[in-house]
Design goal:
Length: 502
């Protein structure tokens, strides 16, 4: 994941309303009884940080398998680190005997890797220039040279583009996805494209689904672009040199799904985390934390009976744009879709400078039931005397396909590259002015990058949600439709996955 942190509200202790799912249950014994229908307190009592930490150490050693190819530990799709992760998840569940039906779902995925790049405008190297994710290389993976040419408006229609043969397009961000601009530039004959931010600051993003029309594309900040826009408008020439050595290739990767054999198969509680990391690092918090939480809860659940089916998913290709979860939902028949009563997303549960964040998933904008789930999370934090914040439910993680296909969704997180505010420091401790996860998408997302207090507490919360819904969905809104009203008014969203696309 994950989130671009604009905490949209700060909910203080004691302000949330009471849940229909009481946390305190009648059970008194903390020693769980096998062969009883699962109860929250009992399942939670089996969650210990020591086993989570052991799993994190194992996962890091698996990420080291990626070193040979990437020169550092990684679990990016296609790497040995990711294949090892899949084996670890699969074999852990397989060892639990016949409690679960375990399956692999393979699907095609696109991966990109930029090996080298440079951009020179006039005689200067713009400091903010970076290649966009999934960019193709420049021709023959060699530098190309040509004058810079300004594209009109937002560069979202063919008529915005002059003849760009042997030229480099300079295009504003805005109105349509980066991938559309790159393809239109390519069709107009451009040898490369530079997209500049129309808001303040640096820009980075992805071209999304590859197109044969895409050209090598960089992004730069508003400030870096300004002098060149002025020159071009004054009729001056800006000689440009662009170079990207990159590959974009198709591979197969795999989602792993484990479903309880017991429990009503027509009423499933589903939860997921992503098994992959970015290429830049081992991804122990993102999303080792979420995927290991699922593994631990799945392991402990086998001690109980369930009323409703519970389905765990470990998605692949999340970092490339939610590929695994998109694929999974896209191939569900309407009948299968309607069997999923809700989907819970667990992406980054142990950020070192954490906040307890709950997706603000409401029934007004999302499938009905999303808000009941949201309130189950907030009631848990409140009943533990903890603060939480609401964060936008804006398409940056694997819940997106579910809510777009009528399935109620939600989840919790602890923060990515957002900056902790002074107010949030008061609520959660930690360091104001730093990122929630200073190692987000980097080399240093190792075992040392986990806050174990937050991780254990959040894993107990995941256990609480699983136990609550596995036990009963009677109070939970029934599924009605496999469609969701399009709340965006048909406009593409800024995010579909962790990377900006518009
Ligand atoms: C949550 O989202 C709803 C829209 O669905 C919005 O009205 C509300 O203000 C949001 N709440 C917070 C705390 O941001
Ligand atoms: C499923 O994938 C896992 C992980 O790659 C692998 O170990 C296992 O053998 C596969 N199982 C089947 C039935 O293909
Ligand atoms: C919750 O936030 C308040 C400040 O609004 C703070 O005084 C309190 O200590 C926080 N509680 C916890 C458990 O951190
Ligand atoms: C995790 O967070 C807790 C609560 O803020 C803090 O007391 C603890 O020192 C942190 N642990 C680590 C390893 O950062
Ligand atoms: Zn993630």
């Amino acid at each position: 994941m994950a989130s671009f942190y604009l905490p949209v509200a700060l909910i203080l202790l004691g302000q949330a309303c009471a849940s229909q799912y009481p946390l305190v249950e009648t059970e008194t014994s903390s020693i769980p009884t096998v062969d009883e229908v699962v109860k929250s307190k009992s399942l939670q009592s089996r969650i210990h940080v020591d086993s989570l930490l052991e799993r994190a150490k194992t996962l890091y050693s698996i990420a080291e398998l990626g070193e040979e190819e990437y020169n550092h530990p990684t679990r990016v799709i296609g790497s040995k680190g990711h294949l090892g992760t899949l084996d670890y998840i699969y074999s852990t569940i397989a060892q639990l005997g016949d409690y679960y039906t375990l399956s692999n779902q393979s699907f095609p995925a696109v991966v990109g890797n930029v090996f080298e790049s440079h951009l020179v405008l006039g005689s200067q190297v713009p400091a903010s220039a970076i290649p966009m994710s999934l960019t193709p290389p420049t021709k023959d993976k060699e530098p190309v040279f040509g004058p810079l040419a300004l594209v009109s408006n937002f560069g979202c229609s063919t008529s915005d583009y002059p003849d760009l043969s042997e030229k480099v397009a300079l295009i504003s961000r805005g109105d349509c996805p980066f991938g559309t601009k790159s393809a239109l530039a390519g069709r107009a004959g451009a040898i490369a494209a530079v997209i500049y931010n129309n808001e303040k600051g640096a820009l980075g993003g992805t071209l999304g689904t590859p197109s044969p029309d895409h050209v090598a594309t960089f992004s730069i900040s508003d400030i870096d672009a300004a002098p060149y826009i002025r020159k071009l408008k004054d009729g001056e020439q800006v000689d440009t040199s662009a170079y990207i050595d990159a590959i974009v290739e198709s591979i197969e990767t795999t989602n792993i799904i484990a479903q309880t054999k017991e429990g009503d198969p027509d009423n499933c509680v589903m939860l997921g985390g992503h098994s992959d990391s970015v290429a830049e690092g081992p991804g122990i918090n993102d999303d080792g934390s979420g995927s290991l939480t699922l593994l631990e809860v799945a392991t402990q659940l086998v001690n109980y009976r369930v009323t409703n089916c519970v389905r765990f998913a470990w998605w692949a290709g999340e970092e490339e744009g939610l590929l695994g979860s998109d694929y999974y939902v896209s191939v569900l028949s309407p009948e299968e879709n309607l069997k999923i009563r809700l989907f819970m997303d667990y992406d980054m549960l142990a950020s070192p400078n954490f906040a307890y964040q709950v997706y603000n998933a409401t029934n007004a904008l999302n499938p009905v039931g999303s808000e009941e789930l949201r309130d189950l999370y907030t009631d848990f934090y409140t009943s533990h005397g903890l603060n939480f914040t609401y964060i936008p439910f804006d398409g940056r993680s694997d819940y997106d396909a579910f809510i777009k296909h009528g399935i109620p969704g939600g989840g919790i997180a602890t923060g990515a590259e957002g900056v902790k505010t002074e107010k949030e420091r008061e609520l959660f401790g930690g360091v104001a002015g730093d990122w929630f996860d200073p190692c987000y998408h980097q080399f240093c997302d190792t075992v040392a990058n986990l806050n174990l207090t937050a991780w254990e507490l959040n894993t107990k919360l995941v256990a609480h949600t699983v136990a609550t819904y596995a036990r009963s969905l009677e109070e939970f809104p029934k599924r009605k439709s496999i469609k969701t009203a399009d709340v965006s008014g048909g406009l593409p969203s800024k995010y579909h996955g962790p990377k900006l696309q518009l």
